[in-house]
Design a protein that fits this description.
The chain is of the alpha/beta class. It has 16 helices and eight strands. The protein has two domains: about 240 residues, Alpha/Beta hydrolase fold, catalytic domain (Rossmann fold); about 100 residues, Serine Threonine Protein Phosphatase 5, Tetratricopeptide repeat (Alpha Horseshoe), CATH 1.25.40. Helix 14 runs antiparallel to helix 15. The longest helix has 21 residues.
């Protein structure tokens, strides 16, 4: 019963935060010669920091997908698994506009006159408005389902792809779209492009065959700039797959933002030299800052993730660099002083080692349980200096 009450409280708080930070806007479009209704979610901290930038996500079929995407954004950002985002949903189902917006020519699979206008509406009118109105980082995502999931690919196959990440849920692909995508992928350069694709047994055989065939084509794409993930749901349905696909896409697209996992460590870090491990960590956060506008300090957990490399390789030659990096990030922490002290102690420079060990000890709060163990470093170095230390 208590768990249920807690769930309800969390749900109410999330709903309150969501409603307070979401507005519905009528947008008059010259390209469409019509008004469109947008749902715009702005994170609660947006007004507090006038310098912070935010990734942008455009959600098609907003009546169905917007709330699910925003809910996952709030959850993932609260757990530091993804950056906060500005999320803009385009309503397309009041008068079944999605058919007119996203239909394609049967002759060449390219947009019709009407869907070309919808493409221009997003690519120029809407994006220009959002760039002028909000502080946006370079990273942009677009999300679609079934027919709209086919439409988002027109932004991938254009000369300069307008988005960094594409979430295609149960796409109803135009006949030539898989081949058009496959032709485009080898030409992608400079920035990584993320493509998440999902399907499942709940689809018709022809539909399922088209998605599986597209997967076979895309997974052969030989371009390191094209990051690809496919999920096929054996036991699900078309509605449930939306709730399954969006969090999976979050985990895939924003993996860089997350703290270093065991998988990331084993794949990218464990065989690096100390200098390269430190550089990897610093570059990870530079890229996070650039792409997502999130000026994060390097997480302490990520510092400790590379600790074993610094300690075990090259006789501790990079302990000083490691400690100095920690001191820049966490000035009140004794950890950086400890590593620099250890560097000098290893090199037999006991005066400098004492200086840093004492500095670190003084940073410990009164009653800290680590104080006695930390003071042992000082006592050990004093004995080494005086020649009375015994192993």
């Amino acid at each position: 019963m208590k768990k249920l009450e807690l769930f309800v409280i969390v749900l109410l708080i999330t709903s309150a935060l969501y409603s307070q930070n979401t507005q519905v806007k009528k947008f008059s479009s010259r390209e469409l010669n019509d008004d469109r209704f947008l749902k715009i979610y702005v994170p609660p901290g947006y007004a507090d920091d006038k310098t912070k930038l935010y990734p942008l996500t455009i959600v098609l079929d907003a009546e169905y997908l917007f709330d699910v995407y925003v809910g996952n954004s709030i959850l993932f950002s609260s757990k530091e698994k993804a950056p906060e985002q500005i999320i803009v949903g385009i309503n397309q189902n009041q008068y079944n506009e999605r058919i007119k917006d996203c239909t394609y020519s049967k002759e060449n699979s390219l947009p019709t006159k009407d869907s070309e206008a919808f493409y221009r509406f997003i690519r120029s009118e809407l994006m220009d408005y959002l760039e002028e109105t909000y502080r946006l980082s370079p990273f942009k995502t677009i999300v679609g389902n079934t027919l709209t999931a086919n439409f988002i690919n027109y932004f991938l196959i254009e000369d300069n792809p307008g988005f960094n990440a594409f979430v295609a849920i149960n796409p109803y692909y135009a006949p030539d779209m898989p081949a058009l995508m496959h032709q485009k992928i080898p030409t992608l350069k400079n920035e990584n492009r993320f493509y998440y694709l999902s399907g499942g047994n709940y689809l018709s055989e022809n539909w399922k065959t088209a998605i599986n065939g597209t997967n076979e084509l895309l997974k052969t794409a030989n371009n390191p700039k094209f990051k690809y993930q496919y999920e096929f749901f054996e036991k699900s349905n078309a509605v449930a797959s939306i709730g399954q696909s969006i969090p999976s896409a979050f985990a895939f697209i924003f993996d860089l933002y997350s703290a270093i996992s065991k998988e990331e460590f084993d794949k990218n870090i464990k065989d690096l030299s100390p200098a390269d491990a430190i550089a990897y960590l610093e570059n990870k956060y530079v890229e996070i800052d650039y792409l997502f506008g999130s000026n994060l300090k390097i997480r302490e957990s990520d510092i400790f993730a590379i600790e074993s490399i610094i300690l075990d390789k090259e006789n501790g030659d990079y302990l000083k660099n490691f400690g100095e990096m920690i001191n820049r990030l966490y000035k009140q922490s004794p950890i950086g002083d400890y590593y620099i002290g250890r560097y000098y102690e290893t090199g037999g420079k006991f005066k400098q080692a004492l200086e840093y060990y004492k500095s670190g000890y003084m940073k410990l709060p009164e009653g800290d349980p680590n104080a006695d163990g930390y003071y042992e470093n000082i006592e050990r170095v004093l004995k080494k200096r005086d020649g009375t230390y015994k192993e």
